[in-house]
Write a structure and sequence with these properties.
The complex is a heterotrimer. Chain A is of the alpha/beta class. Chain A contains eleven helices and twelve strands. In chain B, helix 9 packs across helix 10. The radius of gyration of chain B is 24 Å and the shape is globular. Chain C has one domain: MetI-like (MetI-like fold, Orthogonal Bundle), CATH 1.10.3720. Chain C has 14 helices and no strands. In chain C, helix 2 packs across helix 5 and helix 12 packs parallel to helix 13. The chains are: A alpha/beta, B mainly alpha, C mainly alpha. Chains B and C meet through helix 1, helix 6, helix 7, helix 8 and helix 10 of B and helix 6, helix 7, helix 12 and helix 14 of C.
């Protein structure tokens, strides 16, 4: 249903444009829950906004296409885009306090969206607004409240309700749980999954919280420095992470039931995207890097249904490295 | 509600400060006030009333102690007794002031509202079309324009439009040969006389508001809720007005209040340059004629007007920003 | 930090233009004798002459050379601008930052004080004070402008200091045991440099305008040589009506140019120091992955 192909987003700032999203491809099927994970600054939010065509200058899509229900969003006219917006594709943002207009009551913001796409009668607007609120467990009386009068969790749920006004095919969520405490996070995620089951929409969920997203998603996309590092079925990535980065992410926190092991983070920090790196972008921090990693940028390869961008899986290079090292590198098996 | 009460309290406090300032200023000035008085009435027969008035102002009246004078002064203010004008003797000050208010309200009131409305509108558009022609030329031009002294703009207007091109009259509020009446010809005459000073005032004050509104809009446009409005597929002008402008204008309302002080200053200068018979012109004449009671009363009047405008702006903020209505 | 400041300034056309203009005026003020041949107050020439080779801008109604008056008039104006501008910015910095840092009762009290001073209409007050004082010279003008003009800047600096207050480097200073005065002077103020400079420039600008306006109204010292006083005499001699335009145009243009220089520089510093003018998204807090528990993934 959603097919992103070779999407590239540049920030055209002054003399040095920064490539925030580099040749990213992913696909979302009907009713799927796809998670996009990565550290801060890896380009995941930019990717999201690029898909929904919500970028603000100086960010610009410089290559690629976003095919949604057969049409390319990147080249679409504004008019057609506005017609599709919210009816087929809606957005949930990180902080409802910032995403809701502080001077308009919540109900008016619902009505705005409804009226922009055809529903005119006051009764219909009120009825539909109350209906979606009920879906998320909020009483319709709150339609008259202002955003600052609702609690954090309620605001977030109200935002999700607003996203479902037209039961769209795809809902894009940008870290909707980051602003909440752990308990509220869990309840919100459960609610989202339930709604998904009921209404059948697909979700693209961006977050830095690996554990949260791996619990709820069907497929996972791991991003690093603007590129896709690994992508595939969540279960598979979770059981056997191929890319050293994904491995590092999963090993960074201990299992609650396993043995006590010393914590292992990933040393170093994400690269400065304004400086163009020659080889693999992760190589400075990679624990298993090969000499070739510093000079050859790895391509995205397919390994048994999972895409991975790492020279370790490049048959040519890996063979050479194996021969040189005399030892095969085995991905560790995770025990839960 | 609490917000409005707090602002009303502030209003009263500042009013008291202004009134007290008015009382103490002449008493703080260097030099012996009696000398000033004698110099003023040199050669003229001074009526005991005039001398009494002067003494009261300068505190040379040694019959009462300072606190007693102060209380007496406050009492006078509250009963509207501002004394007698020295220049327009024996007319009471309140009478003299009344003649000027109409002119100033008309000129300054209308111009200020226009400048605010236009400035805000242009600011919104300039920010919306960021990078367009309006935005690249506008702000630097306005910045330069705000540095030009008000009175000089007025003088240039007189030179260009009044003297050289002779399009519009440039002196006074009306033709002094006419008698005021609600006839179209008189009103037209008044309008004509107010065009040049009004335009001069408009040009000099519009700059600040355009600039601040544009800057506020630029900040607001970067907010998440504006992006959200775009995501909902709302029409662009609706996003611009309901989501961006409505939020951007809020800090402008309080800024409006603060810049009123400057507008008043500009109005005084413009009235002076164009000999427009408003309250500002009257103040300057009072200064030149050393008509202290009139001067004090006018200062108080101007201050009160500004304070009232600020209070109104605060009430408007309370109405338009629901966040101020919750308990703060 | 300072290097990037200079670089940013050099790149901005507004700043360059403003700086060059200001430099010209400063040179004129410091070495008027180099540019003007005549003494500005000598009443030696025939009155109301038009522009000529001998008198670039003609002569005044009293027979003085307009060009020399304009040149010599630069110094008092710059003195006022620099003096009052610096003084009021300093007072504003002290009060604003102290209010932000001390918080609580002092913050509230200083705030109310600042707001009251801010709200009382400045120009009428200046007129009234100047009226009582009679013939205010440069010194008096500087004093009066300083004591009435600090309020707006104090407010700005206070809100900036407030936003800095919770930053980590200040907490570090507190933990090190530094005293409040030290923290204010050494940690907070330098960070606000571009805001302080912008504030100084805007204060200088308004001081130039207010001082010239007061002189124009005749409330300054009518015997001094300053642009505002030149305009006062021009108005008195009905220069416009009688066709001797230059007497009115020249000093006004000078004020406008100096004002423009200050305004452009201020705008440039504003853009540099004020992040709000650039739509930048606030950096999100980094969460350490190590602190998150893993859960068994449920196949959806």
């Amino acid at each position: 249903m959603l097919e992103v192909s070779g999407l590239t987003v540049d920030y055209l700032t002054g003399t040095n444009p920064v490539r925030a999203v580099d040749d990213v491809s992913l696909s979302v099927g009907r009713g799927e829950f796809v998670g996009i994970v990565g550290e801060s600054g890896c380009g995941k939010s930019t990717l999201l906004f690029a898909i929904a065509r919500l970028l603000s200058p100086p960010a610009v899509v410089t290559a690629g296409s976003v095919t949604f229900r057969g049409e390319n969003l990147v080249t679409m006219t504004d008019r057609r885009l506005n017609a599709i917006r919210w009816q087929n594709l809606s957005v949930v943002m990180q902080s409802a306090m910032n995403a809701l207009n502080p001077v308009m009551p919540v109900g008016a913001q619902f009505a705005d969206a409804l009226r922009a796409h055809g529903t005119i009668s006051r009764k219909a607007v009120a009825a539909r607004s109350a209906e979606v609120l009920r879906l998320v467990g909020i009483d319709a009386v709150h339609l008259g409240s202002y955003p600052h009068q609702l609690s954090g969790g309620m605001r977030q749920r109200a935002m999700i309700a607003m996203a479902l006004l037209f039961t769209p095919d795809l809902v894009i969520m940008d870290e909707p749980t980051s602003a909440l405490d752990v308990v509220a996070q869990r309840s919100l995620m459960t609610q989202i999954k339930e709604l998904q089951r009921e209404l059948g929409f697909a979700v693209v969920f961006v977050t830095h919280d690996m554990s949260l997203v791996s619990h709820y998603s069907d497929r996972l996309v791991v991003m690093y420095a603007g590129q896709v590092a690994e992508a595939g079925a969540t279960r598979r990535i979770f059981d056997r992470p191929l890319h050293p980065y994904s491995r590092g992410l999963l090993e960074a926190f201990p299992s609650i039931r396993g043995d006590k092991v010393p914590l292992q983070g990933i040393p170093g920090s994400p690269p400065d995207l304004s400086v163009i790196h020659n080889g693999c972008r992760f190589s400075p921090r990679c624990p298993v890097k090969l000499p070739a990693c510093e000079t050859t940028p790895p391509a995205l390869l397919d390994r048994e249904g999972t895409s991975v961008r790492c020279l370790l899986y490049d048959p040519g290079i890996a063979a050479v490295a194996q021969a040189e090292a005399g030892q095969a590198t085995q991905p560790r098996r995770r025990r839960l | 509600m609490r917000y409005v009460l707090r602002r009303a309290g502030f209003f009263l406090l500042t009013l008291w400060v202004a009134v007290t300032l008015n009382f103490f200023l002449p008493r703080m000035m260097p030099g012996d006030p009696t000398i000033a008085m004698m110099a003023k009435f040199r050669g003229k027969v001074a009526s005991p009333q005039a001398i009494q008035a002067l003494e009261t102002i300068f505190g040379a009246d040694s019959h009462q102690s300072l606190p007693a004078q102060y209380v007496h002064y406050l009492g006078d203010i509250f009963t509207g007794n501002f004394g007698t004008s020295l220049f327009f003797f024996p007319e009471p000050v309140s009478q003299v002031v009344r003649t000027g208010i109409f002119w100033t309200l008309g000129l300054v009131g209308v111009t200020t509202i226009l400048a605010f409305a236009l400035g805000t509108g242009i600011g919104i558009l300039a920010a919306w079309r960021r990078g367009g022609l309006t935005d690249s030329l506008g702000p630097p031009l306005l910045v330069v324009a705000s540095a030009i002294p008000y009175f000089w703009v007025g003088m240039m207007f007189i030179l260009i439009f009044g003297l050289t091109l002779q399009w519009l009259p440039y002196q006074g509020g009306m033709n002094y040969t006419d008698t005021p009446a609600l006839t179209p010809s008189f009103l037209g005459d008044v309008a004509e006389h107010s065009l040049l000073p009004g335009l001069a005032l408009l040009i000099t004050t519009i700059g600040t508001w355009t600039l601040t509104m544009r800057n506020n809009m630029v900040t607001t446009l970067a907010e998440d809720y504006v992006r959200m409005a775009r995501a909902k597929g709302l029409r662009p002008h609706r996003v611009m007005l309901n989501y961006a402008a409505r939020n951007a204008i809020l800090p402008n309302l309080t800024g409006f209040a603060m810049s009123l002080g400057f507008v008043v200053g500009g109005a005084i200068l413009i009235e002076y340059v164009f000999n427009y018979p408003g309250v500002g012109y009257m103040l300057l004449q009072a200064v030149q004629n050393e008509d202290w009671p009139l001067m004090q009363a006018l200062f108080l009047l101007i201050t009160v007007a500004v304070l009232v405008a600020i209070l109104l702006a605060d009430i408007a903020t309370a109405i338009f920003d629901p966040r101020t209505r919750s308990s703060r | 930090m300072r290097k990037t400041l200079w670089r940013a300034l050099a790149r901005s056309p507004k700043a360059t233009a403003g700086a060059i203009l200001l430099a010209v005026f400063i040179v004129l003020a410091l070495f008027p004798g180099l540019f003007a041949r005549d003494n500005p107050t000598t009443i030696a020439y025939p009155r109301n002459l038009g522009p000529s080779a001998a008198h670039l801008f003609g002569t005044t109604g009293l027979g003085q050379d307009v060009f020399s008056q304009a040149i010599y008039g630069t110094r008092p104006v710059l003195e006022i601008a620099l003096g009052a501008g610096l003084a009021s910015t300093l007072i504003a910095a002290l009060i604003g930052v102290a209010a932000a840092y001390l918080g609580g009762f002092w913050d509230g009290a200083l705030n109310v004080f600042t707001d009251v001073v801010l709200v009382i209409p400045l120009f009428p007050l200046l007129i009234v004070i100047a009226a009582y004082v009679h013939n205010s010279g440069t010194g008096v003008l500087i004093a009066v402008l300083t004591f009435t003009g600090w309020a707006y800047t104090a407010r700005q600096l206070r809100s900036q200091a407030l936003s800095l207050r919770s930053r980590d480097f200040l907490a570090a200073a507190r933990v090190r045991g530094e005293r409040a005065a030290y923290i204010i002077a050494v940690e907070i103020l330098p960070t606000m440099i571009s805001l302080l400079v912008a504030a100084f420039l805007i204060n200088a600008l308004y001081d130039v305008l207010f001082a010239s306006s007061l002189q124009f109204l005749g409330l300054g010292d009518p015997n001094s040589v300053a642009w505002g006083t030149m305009l006062y005499w021009a108005q008195n001699n009905e220069a416009l009506q009688t066709g001797y335009y230059l007497q009115a145009i020249v000093p006004g243009a000078a004020i406008a140019l100096l004002g423009a220089a200050l305004a452009l520089l201020n705008y440039a510093f504003d853009e540099i120091g004020n992040p709000a003018l650039r739509p930048v998204r606030a950096p999100r807090a980094r969460r350490r992955l190590a602190s998150i528990r893993i859960r068994r993934p449920v196949s959806a």
